[in-house]
Design a protein that fits this description.
By secondary structure, the protein is mainly alpha-helical. The protein folds into two domains: 76 residues; 82 residues, no CATH class. It has five helices and two strands; from the N terminus they run βααβααα. Strands 1-2 form a two-stranded parallel sheet. Helix 1 runs antiparallel to helix 2 and helix 4 packs across helix 5. The longest helix has 36 residues. The chain is flat.
Length: 169
């Protein structure tokens, strides 16, 4: 049974990248043992990457045969950007980058608390009091587990670290 498939914006480009990656991995796996024998080290990776390449080529062929369907006067690029970058995803990505950058400056406790609190809001929770409480409880559990069970030294932060009590460092 064959079902018609409408092509999404960027689908052909993605499939070309998949085929290129599969071809590169096939070449890399061939270089492991140069197919010296059936039981050589590179045979299994070659079989797997050859399967990836064949299925990638089949999917590329299907994508090329499919018709691109655009919604209500939207350009292919506009629809691609809209579908791949919904506002929640962009906001959450910005939060993760900010968390990574602030971790060294504000330390683990403050930056993690802010990250948990703001990420709950970005993901749709509007109950501020509950977010404050849940963020504090989750952070306390994480802190205790990493500090006591795993003996991990968590960053205190260059800006906040000197003012934290000793047990939080």
């Amino acid at each position: 049974m064959h079902t018609s498939h409408s092509r999404l914006p960027g689908e052909v480009a993605f499939m070309v990248l998949i085929v290129a990656f599969s071809a590169f991995m096939l070449w890399a796996s061939f270089n492991i043992s140069r197919f010296e024998s059936v039981s050589a080290a590179g045979v299994f990776p070659m079989v797997c990457t050859a399967a990836m390449l064949v299925t990638g080529l089949m999917s590329l062929r299907q994508s090329l045969k499919s018709r691109l369907v655009l919604e209500s006067g939207e350009t292919a690029w506009g629809q691609f950007v809209r579908k791949l970058t919904p506002p929640t995803l962009v906001q959450f990505t910005v939060l993760i980058v900010a968390y990574m950058l602030l971790l060294e400056v504000l330390g683990f406790v403050v930056s993690s608390y802010l990250f948990l609190l703001l990420s709950m809001q970005v993901l749709g929770s509007s109950r501020v009091g509950l977010n404050v409480l849940v963020s504090a409880l989750v952070l306390a559990c994480i802190f205790v587990i990493f500090q006591t069970a795993f003996s991990v030294v968590l960053p205190a932060g260059s800006l906040v670290g000197p003012y934290l009590p000793e047990f939080l460092k």
